[in-house]
Amino acid sequence: MNQKLKRQALQFVGLMLLAASPLSAQTAASVPLPAQLATAHTAFISNAGGSINSLSQQAYVIFYRSLLGWKHFQLTSNPADADVILELSSVPHEVANHTLATGSPQLILNIRDVKTQTILWSFTELIEGKSPIALVADKDISDASARLITDMNTLLASSSVSLPTKKARFAQEKP
């Protein structure tokens, strides 16, 4: 092998070893949160809607009220005054039925950076209940909203994100 090829091979191996080694105290299973999430104090809630206006409005009102009780963010009425935008949308049964085995409607929360409009994080929670889509119970939406807030609280409680623990998807499965 000529010297140039040997040098390139050694450089490649060195880069691969460097890439495989941790650069800080973080493990491969833990990565930092986007900085905007860790430092955000104010939020604007946006109703991104869905194909059924009544479900979107119902979800928005309940989610807004739930966030008032959480008190993690100071809510603003103007997106320009906020650090992040909490963009809530709903997906009705007809759409969810094609994407999820349950067919339940769902709430989707995208957390956006105000300046760049980049989605920093996203959560999805099912609206579990027995009611048809036109009559989704406030309690079912309230439960889904509470789970979204729990998701945010869990995420924002640390400065990094780890791989989730495996959860059983069905009663007969073990984690």
Overall description:
The structure is a single chain. By secondary structure, this protein is an alpha/beta fold. It has a single domain, classed as Double Stranded RNA Binding Domain, CATH 3.30.160.670. 38% of the residues lie in helices and 23% in strands. It has helices spanning 3-20, 35-39, 53-70, 93-99, 138-156; strands at 30-32, 42-49, 74-76, 84-91, 106-113, 119-126, 160-162. A five-stranded mixed sheet has the order 3-2-4-5-6. The chain has a two-stranded antiparallel ribbon with strand order 1-7. The longest helix is centred in the last third of the chain and has 19 residues, at 138-156.
List keywords for this structure.
two-stranded antiparallel sheet; single chain; 5 helices; alpha/beta; 175 residues; Double Stranded RNA Binding Domain
